[in-house]
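Thread: His-Xaa-Ser system protein HxsD, structure

OP (GT): Posting the sequence first so everyone is looking at the same thing. Length is 100 residues per the record. Can we get the structure tokens written out before standup tomorrow? I want them in the notebook alongside the other entries.
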Amino acid sequence: MSNTPFFLTIQHCEAAHSVVQRTAHRFAGRCSLSVETADDRSVVRLVGVIDDPERLEREFRAALLDDVLRARIEAETAPLRQLIVEAALRSALREPGAGA
């Protein structure tokens, strides 16, 4: 068990800084942390009672992969979601009884 800082380095080609921040937020209840950007990578600093740093890194990287995939799906479906919202707004603003 250790209370010394534990660092994870994530290359931006693996995950965008914003995605790393999103993942780090999930771990905020387990330890104190900060996320900084340095050149082409994000550096996550975790401090707290970390009994198994290797397990923590595996969990963080698994959560990061989940967030990377979610961000990719979000980006890929953004145009479709925009069309759905626009269609719903047009339908809501249509005059009553104007027909389809």
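GT: Both are above now. Quick notes for whoever picks this up: The two ends are 66 Å apart (CA to CA). The mean pLDDT is 91.
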